[in-house]
Amino acid sequence: MSRLLRAAACLAALLPLYAQPPIAPPKPPAFRRPPAFPERPPADPASLERGKAVYGVHCTFCHGVDARGGSGGPNLIRTSLVLNDKNGELIGPVIREGREGMPKFDLTPTQISDIAAFIHNFKVGGYDVSRMTPPSIVTGDPTAGAAYFAKTCSGCHSNLNGIASRITDPKQLQQTWLMPGSGGGRGGGAGARVSPTTVTVTTATAKVNGRLVRIDDFFVSLIDAEGTPITFTRSGDVPKVELQDPLIGHRKLLSTYSDTDIHNLTAFLVTLK
Known about the structure:
Number of helices: 12
Shape: extended
Strand order of the largest sheet: 4-3-2-1-5
Largest sheet: 5 strands, antiparallel
Strand content: 5-15%
Order of helices and strands: HHHHHHHHHHEEEEEHH
Radius of gyration: 31 Å
Oligomer: single chain
């Protein structure tokens, strides 16, 4: 009898264990898709500011203010060279040596590193995320912009009334006055039409005029009035080369603008309907 009681007691003790639901196997770790583009640590703020300034002077005209293409220059953000670059080691040789259609720039290693930091600061991803478009670029003081225009621009541009009606997109308008001819794009009105840069090359036997195609320390290429492409080899000041650049005034001012000047002048120009 005692054996039966002990067996019954054991069964009673085991019944709750059998009544419990089975223990679920551990879940596998969640799958995390590897990033499609490099994930970079935050850059030094001082380096970013320096890079923005140097980029603005040398690169904005061709590659745009956000490095996504400008007047003839490609989008830099998604190029394999920029994606694989870390601190300017791949970008530097292109800047110093140039490429077809791109002049070389004599910049220091620090300047190149700063430019790389500025370019890498843009997020690469979906269209809306990557562009980081602000709600509006019109953030300046139009009164201060009018004073700046009167002091700096009125010598060549006495009256720009109606420019904001012709170029209705503020971003395009800003890019247009920074460097006329570079603000064209989809929508927003027509950008400024600018005469091409011309060049006169004087050799020992002839003087040749035409539209400038390319110039550097070694060659100058032009297309003459009959549409014939001509290239001259340069050695120092020989042959004599004279440029007629309708944008020379704008190019000289590019390195003098502060962010405040740009914002204020744009805020003034958008009022000129």
